[in-house]
Amino acid sequence: MIGSKNPNSLYDSILVGTDQGRIYILTKLTGKFEKFFEAHTGAVLALKWDRDHVCFASSGEDGTIKIWSRSCMLRATIANNKSPIYSFAWGHLNSSIVCTDALNLTIKPIQTSRSSISWRAHKELVLAVDWSLTSEKIISGAEDCKYKVWTEEGNLVYSSGTFSFPINSIAWAANGQHFAVGLFEMVMLCDRMGVSQCDSQLSSKTGSVYALKWSGDSSTLLCGTGSGNIFTGYIFDKVASFGSVEAKLADQHRVLVSNPETGLENQSVEWRERITNISVNSDHLILLTISQCCIFKMKSLLSPITIELRDNDYLVIQSEKYFMLVSLGSLEVYTYDGRLVMRPKQLQLKSSLLDPKLMTLNSEFLAIRDAEETNGNYSIINFDVVQSFTSWRLAQEKT
């Protein structure tokens, strides 16, 4: 079992679990195992960093979920089930974990003072589960050959039809707009409500798809199969629109732009690097690549202004005068001529803030609502974009 890497670590740590119950820490810088330790009795079945990459959790054949510090010290054991825990996912604010439990799904709080939530999810053994931060929905797959979408309270949103093979893996994209489902020699792409959008039949003798991992920009999917092969998939036909303006990602290097009001129809905008994200308003088109932010004027769509990026997992939010790029490591506000206006260093960006519904930007202010409530209230932080300081902080009562 190979866990997710930690992008904030200097050495780009990778977790590796074995069938003997050990967890190894591999550093990308040296390509060597830094350390290992005994974690479970029996095989390690799942490994995941928390959403802020502060600690990680593991589950195993022994029916336990354990939380470990970055120095591999045991912090807590939050589950001790009778059956193996095949899959789990971190929840909102890293305050809970949803895990498989035979035919059930169970949400285990990190704090022992809170009670668990459990419900019957499938008629056969549940093999896979994931939890989206942005869509606030849980997805599951099982040996009954179905996948399902749930609310965080355990209410059923969608149930698929019965397939010919068990659902071995399932994974939300980071943006919460779609998820992938893996089964025997096939991968499916579904929208956030669960409806299948397309499927890809893999070559014969690849076996079942046991692992799925999205890139941080939600554009690329890695699939690990029973044969040991790894497949890469890309999302095409993504559409960004504003009023009558529409930009469509035609392939990895090309965007088609249309505006019926100006007579513009499928004008091609091409870029040498792979395009990971697109955003548009009435005056500007923004393309994000793996290393650059490209700003095009809608009037010409020629000679873009480029900004070098330190990360490639960015959320883009546009306003009339400014736009901002948000990642787990930074928040930056720019003018459309590429000038940096603001980079609030006092703001501690957690994964819970990487949600466009919690941010808004106009010509004067940037407002961010904290996803974490305190005593029933949410905090709203308002930044003056021009003066680049925090103008006020408002406590909003939860409704």
Automatic annotation (TrEMBL):
Residues 240-384 form the IFT80 second beta-propeller domain. Keywords: WD repeat. PROSITE patterns: WD_REPEATS_2, WD_REPEATS_REGION. It comes from the Eukaryota. Gene3D superfamilies: YVTN repeat-like/Quinoprotein amine dehydrogenase. InterPro entries: Beta-prop_IFT80_2nd (IPR056456), WD40/YVTN_repeat-like_dom_sf (IPR015943), WD40_repeat_dom_sf (IPR036322), WD40_rpt (IPR001680). SUPFAM superfamilies: WD40 repeat-like. WD repeats lie at residues 37-69, 119-150. This is Intraflagellar transport protein 80. It comes from Cichlidogyrus casuarinus.
